[in-house]
């Protein structure tokens, strides 16, 4: 079994329920708010942190680094984890070269380390100490120091064209948080290039959704020590498994409701007033036979799939299955070409929908704040999730 | 100038520093990184010599080593003399100087960010290698400061020396004790010279301590950047 597999469970000092894997050459991002436990998971892989009552296993290329059932628990030195620390943790009294050479095994000569630093664009800076390097340069030294732990040794690479894979992982703990935006863009590109050359599992910890979306093959959403959902970024962002994931991935427009089965293949989503007033709106949705009749649900309205029509428009033939919703445009924040609009449904004035509309569309509809529009909501614009089971 | 006294003082200062350095290093490193509930008590015990009058320490030392105590009786039976000898003076000097050696070193080790230790471990360095190659080079200014303070304080010690060592020329009469003798004997000329030597050495030591501390601070500033 190649790649990294992680299954960790503990209840103290923090509750942990982590299940994810990362293939060789794959980049998986652990995403979650601060304090969610994502860094602890990374440190557990490196062997720097072990909860007292941990159960589970960490395997890398079939090798057990941790296996509580079999009593296996390797020290950080025995694991081959290249870890890039959030603030790099470079040794301040050593040159860039010495920092990397310290982590390199016996298969690495001085010239090999020099060659690696050159590949990282640091050949002119190898004799500098960390304090004499910029943030981006420090990050590259930290990355080089992590890489020498997981790359095949240059001597073995010379001996055979396909050097044996080192059972290692590359772990990146918020590696881009301490550099300025232009440097970050450069480092993103370099990480992408690096992935062409090194095929070890890479785990990235970040609280930045855009970064995860841009860099990762798959994302793992982490909250309160638990891995909630794993998948391709586009899939997780488009169809969050539950309301908490939707909240964590920053989806606007998620609401409560109840699911009722209708004629075969169709269902009604009853959108009720928060607090349970009598007012309600029924939205037509497709019944995929996954949710029982009468189930309380949370649901997300995907703003990109909502059509905005003039208030005077009349139902048309192409509307079949879609729900028409008369809404008041409460607020318009013009942000250049895009305007951030807040709308409240006529039948549920306490609820509000946020939509990013083009300023051109608003001009065409000739509507301002305080005016009325109609929303045409196709079943496909609604994503319905059962209410997340409350955690014991 | 009482040259034998200066020799005794310098010998005592050198030996105290050499004996105390490994001891203080081990204690300081342990106190700096080990989370333990009993730690404040140990730290208070180490700081006690700073607050107690030297006569109190000297008194307990004499009681502990006198023939009336089991330890003293055992020492006499073994033929080891500690009271009124340089060896005894060294022993008590090591105890009294513990805070001066341990404090700066402990602060230096505590200032080494824990992430550097972890970075060393994941780089494959054992705990021992991490100590020698990462922690010790970074804590070095603290070691120098501790040594300078110990030397200066040993040269200036008076009460303990008088109580434990007595006033034996060439054996336990140190510069500060000799200075006292000279003043008693109205030999103010010699007293002036010796006082000046002590002032000079102490000033030099303190200057070095502050200089090393600055080096240490610069090192820390580099890591935080």
Automatic annotation (TrEMBL), chain B:
Record domain ABC transmembrane type-1: where: 6-209
GO molecular function: molybdate ion transmembrane transporter activity
Annotated transmembrane regions: 12-32, 44-65, 71-98, 143-168, 188-212
Alphabetized SUPFAM superfamilies for the sequence: MetI-like
InterPro entries given in the database record: MetI-like, MetI-like_sf, ModB_ABC
Entry membrane topology: Multi-pass membrane protein
PROSITE patterns linked: ABC_TM1
Subcellular localization(s) per the UniProt record: Cell inner membrane; Cell membrane
Entry's Gene Ontology cellular component terms: plasma membrane
UniProtKB keywords: Cell inner membrane, Cell membrane, Membrane, Molybdenum, Transmembrane, Transmembrane helix, Transport
NCBIfam families for the chain: modB_ABC (TIGR02141)
Family: Belongs to the binding-protein-dependent transport system permease family. CysTW subfamily.
Protein name as catalogued: Molybdenum transport system permease
Organism: Limnohabitans parvus II-B4
């Amino acid at each position: 079994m190649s790649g990294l597999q992680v299954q960790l469970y503990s209840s103290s000092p923090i509750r942990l329920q982590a299940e994810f894997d990362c293939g060789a050459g794959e980049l998986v991002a652990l995403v979650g708010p601060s304090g969610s436990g994502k860094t602890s998971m990374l440190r557990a892989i490196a062997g720097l942190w072990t909860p007292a009552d941990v159960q589970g296993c960490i395997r890398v290329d079939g090798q057990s680094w941790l296996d509580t059932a079999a009593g296996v628990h390797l020290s950080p030195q025995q694991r081959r984890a290249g870890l890039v620390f959030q603030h790099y943790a470079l040794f301040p009294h050593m040159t860039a070269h010495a920092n990397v050479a310290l982590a390199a095994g016996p298969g690495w000569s001085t010239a090999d380390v020099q060659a690696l630093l050159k590949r990282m664009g640091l050949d002119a800076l190898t004799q500098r100490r960390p304090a004499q390097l910029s943030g981006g340069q420090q990050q590259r030294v930290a990355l080089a120091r992590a890489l020498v732990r997981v790359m095949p040794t240059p001597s073995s690479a010379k001996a055979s064209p396909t050097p044996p894979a080192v059972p290692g992982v590359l772990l990146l703990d918020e590696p881009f948080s301490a550099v300025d935006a232009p440097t970050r863009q450069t480092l993103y590109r370099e990480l992408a290039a690096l992935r062409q050359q090194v095929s070890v599992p890479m785990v990235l910890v970040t609280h930045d959704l855009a970064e995860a979306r841009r860099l990762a093959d798959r994302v793992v959403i982490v909250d309160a020590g638990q891995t909630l959902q794993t998948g391709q970024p586009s899939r997780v962002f488009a169809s969050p498994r539950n309301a908490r994931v939707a909240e964590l991935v920053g989806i606007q427009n998620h609401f409560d409701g109840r699911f009722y089965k209708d004629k075969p293949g169709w269902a009604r989503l009853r959108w009720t007033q928060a607090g349970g007033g009598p007012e309600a709106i029924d939205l037509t949705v497709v019944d995929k036979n996954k949710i029982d009749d009468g189930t309380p649900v949370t649901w997300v309205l995907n703003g990109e799939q909502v059509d905005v029509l003039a208030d005077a428009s009349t139902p048309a033939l192409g509307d079949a299955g879609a729900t028409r919703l008369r809404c008041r445009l409460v607020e318009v924040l013009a942000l250049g070409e895009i305007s951030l609009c807040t709308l409240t449904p006529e039948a549920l004035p306490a609820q509000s929908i946020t939509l990013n509309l083009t300023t051109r569309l608003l001009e065409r509809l000739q509507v301002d704040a305080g005016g009325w529009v109609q929303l045409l909501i196709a079943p496909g614009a609604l994503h319905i999730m059962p209410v997340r089971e409350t955690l014991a | 100038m009482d040259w034998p006294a200066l020799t005794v003082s310098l010998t005592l200062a050198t030996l105290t520093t050499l004996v105390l350095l490994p001891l203080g290093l081990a204690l300081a490193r342990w106190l700096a990184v080990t989370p333990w509930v009993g730690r404040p008590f140990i730290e208070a015990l180490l700081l006690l010599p700073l607050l107690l009058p030297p006569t109190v320490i000297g008194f307990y030392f004499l009681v502990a080593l006198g023939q009336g105590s089991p330890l003293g009786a055992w020492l006499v039976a073994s033929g080891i003399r500690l009271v009124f000898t340089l060896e005894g003076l060294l022993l008590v000097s090591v105890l009294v100087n513990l805070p001066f050696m341990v404090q700066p070193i402990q602060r230096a080790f505590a200032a080494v960010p824990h992430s550097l230790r972890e970075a060393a471990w994941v780089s494959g360095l054992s705990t021992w290698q991490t100590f020698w190659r990462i922690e010790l080079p970074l804590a070095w200014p603290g070691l120098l400061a501790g040594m300078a303070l110990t030397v200066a304080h040993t040269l200036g010690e008076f009460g303990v020396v008088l109580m434990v060592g007595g006033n034996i020329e060439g054996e336990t009469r140190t510069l500060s004790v000799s200075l006292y003798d000279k003043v008693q004997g109205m030999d103010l000329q010699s007293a002036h010279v010796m006082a000046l030597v002590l002032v000079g050495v102490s000033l030099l030591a303190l200057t070095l301590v502050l200089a090393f501390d600055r080096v240490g601070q610069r090192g820390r500033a580099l890591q935080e950047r």
